[in-house]
């Protein structure tokens, strides 16, 4: 199965700017740094990297899950020590209190739309909260597409993902702790009605077994999607629509999503 988001690579126009925000403000540890690339370690099982390019940027959307019991402290920390400006909804509120949890949004210097989200049903004590933001895992990455229906079907057919909040213009496609957020390019990102453009990005999913990797290869072949395999590194690379995907065998325990009490892990 797909267990989690293992890595997200985005483009930037300034590695220095990215460093000031993610390391200076959010305090993410740096695990690699060069003139044109920087990689952060927001949790034990997830890395976030930025590559400097001379291309225009389309902002990405991604969301970190944090413990429910810590949410208020984290929001306070973000605004005080973090020095982050949280985004407002049209009615002026900052925290959205929805049926199963709460969230807040903010942007980095490149305009990427970040979110801190929590759900009351997530069991605490399963994953160790990481860093000042007490992050449990990267929950969401946004994939704006022309056809939500076609893209989600591909993710179900290839990865055996489960679907939630299904409509013609929006869907969550879920594997383990990873939630691919699939909005239509015509549907704007909340809470600031930000146009949903497809960012240039590489998304690496963690996979629990080489058996699953083989199944994905068969599914890709059935759909005539080209892939490159790097067996010695336990990796599989391919492209769906405008997005680069990468599967990687990792040591993320397969039972974590179930132990966390994620609704689609049972
Ligand atoms: Fe989100």
TrEMBL record:
<protein>
    <submittedName>
        <fullName>Glyoxalase/bleomycin resistance/dioxygenase family protein</fullName>
    </submittedName>
</protein>
<dbReference type="InterPro" id="IPR029068">
    <property type="entry name" value="Glyas_Bleomycin-R_OHBP_Dase"/>
</dbReference>
<feature type="domain" description="VOC">
    <location>
        <begin position="4"/>
        <end position="119"/>
    </location>
</feature>
<dbReference type="InterPro" id="IPR037523">
    <property type="entry name" value="VOC_core"/>
</dbReference>
């Amino acid at each position: 199965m797909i267990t989690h988001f293992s890595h997200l690579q985005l483009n930037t126009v300034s590695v220095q700017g990215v460093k000031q925000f993610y390391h200076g403000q959010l305090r993410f540890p740096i695990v690699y740094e060069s003139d044109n690339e920087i990689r952060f370690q927001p949790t034990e099982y997830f890395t976030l990297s930025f590559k400097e390019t001379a291309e225009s940027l389309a902002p990405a959307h991604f969301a970190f899950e944090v413990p429910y019991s810590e949410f208020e402290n984290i929001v306070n920390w973000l605004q005080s020590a973090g020095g982050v400006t949280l985004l407002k909804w049209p009615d002026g509120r900052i925290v959205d209190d929805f049926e199963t949890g709460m969230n807040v949004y903010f942007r980095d210097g490149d305009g990427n739309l970040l979110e801190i989200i929590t759900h009351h049903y997530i069991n605490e004590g399963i994953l160790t909260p990481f860093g000042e933001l007490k992050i449990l895992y990267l929950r969401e990455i946004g994939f704006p597409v022309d056809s939500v229906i076609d893209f989600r079907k591909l993710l179900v057919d290839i990865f055996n993902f489960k679907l939630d909040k299904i409509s013609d213009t929006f869907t969550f496609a879920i594997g383990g702790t990873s939630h691919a957020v699939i909005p239509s390019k015509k549907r704007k990102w909340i809470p600031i009605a930000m146009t949903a453009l497809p960012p240039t990005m590489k998304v690496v999913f963690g996979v629990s077994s080489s058996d699953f990797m083989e199944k994905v290869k068969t599914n890709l072949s059935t759909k005539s999607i080209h892939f490159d395999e790097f067996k010695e590194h336990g990796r599989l690379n391919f492209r769906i629509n405008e997005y680069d995907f990468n599967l990687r065998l990792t040591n993320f325990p397969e039972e974590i999503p179930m132990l966390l009490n994620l609704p689609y892990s049972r």
